[in-house]
Amino acid sequence: MNPDTRRSQIEENLNAVEQRIVAACDAAGRSREEITLVAVTKSFPWTDVRHLVDLGIRDVGENRDQEAAPKVAECERAGVSDVRWHFVGQLQTNKARSVSGYAHLVHSVDRARLVRALATAAAARPLRCLIQVDLASERRDVRAPGSPAPPRGGVPPAAVGDLAADIDAAENLLLDGVMAVAPLGGDASSAFAKLAVVARELRASYPDAVIVSAGMSGDLEVAVSHGATHLRVGTALLGSRPLLR
Ligand SMILES: *Cc1c(COP(=O)(O)O)cnc(C)c1O
After folding, report:
1. pTM (2 d.p.)
2. Percent of the chain with pLDDT over 90
3. How far is residue 152's CA from residue 90's CA, in Å, rounded to a whole number?
4. Which of 1, 57, 97, 182 has the greatest number of beta carbons closer than 10 A?
5. Tell me: the pLDDT tens digits for 162-202?
6. Neighbours of 1 (CB within 10 A)
């Protein structure tokens, strides 16, 4: 596609997403400044990151290191440097070093082993982390034993305290808050309400953990109404992704 055409397409999408965010903030009695829009660029080329940055986006999200690391490098080579990279996908411990090299914020910390890997990888630099909360864990408990776990990741709400203590104990990791994905086929409103409770309880012990990363293209209004501070939006900005990825 002609770069100018692609850019105007993204600009139009961005304007529409902005209008949705502003309307959701109005409805919730919140200020737009409380919300950070993270543009999720997975499966799209680095040139889309450049368009987004040209249009004023600074926060960009990726969910696989195999794709993110070369994209970050391409952006840097091309001088697209004013980007804060957010890692939002399930993270294997053997990718911790690579991700800690470029991530401004890791949204998907969900087990003690990963905390240890990130703490080792981050070396001296403080790496900011969110605890990914699994909001479907109760529903999963009632499923037939042996049925596969959904691939979305996260710790059950009851395990957040222990993981928070692990992150807090690591000198070079900063505990910034929580992240969740609404359960597939579930009720986003009750899920994000539950996340708000988890976030509030976490802040009672860790007052700096103020980030609530929730809401995607389909449910960003619901997330804003339940206190989200970070929205992770892909499809509504960049279009639908190829099915196989
Ligand atoms: C892909 C992805 C998003 C963006 O989803 P859209 O529905 O395309 O907006 C948000 N969060 C995570 C963790 C993702 O993997």
Report:
1. 0.94
2. 87
3. 7
4. 182
5. 999 999 999 999 999 999 999 988 899 999 999 999 999 99
6. 8
**CA 140, 141, 143, 148 torsion: positive or negative?**
positive
The two three-digit tokens of residue 53, written as one number: 């940055």
* CB of 233 closer than 8 Å to CB of 39: yes
56: left (phi over 0), alpha (psi -120 to 50) or beta: left
Cβ proximity of 196 and 178 under 8 Å: no
Best substitution site from 17, 40, 213, 238 to test ligand 1's pocket, by max atoms within 8 Å of Cβ? 40
Separation CA 97–CA 117 (nearest Å): 8
**Whose Cα sits closest to atom 11 in ligand 1?**
232
What are the DSSP calls for 173-206, one per residue?
EEEEEEE--PPTTS-HHHHHHHHHHHHHHHHHH-
- From the CA of 217, give the closest atom in ligand 1: 9
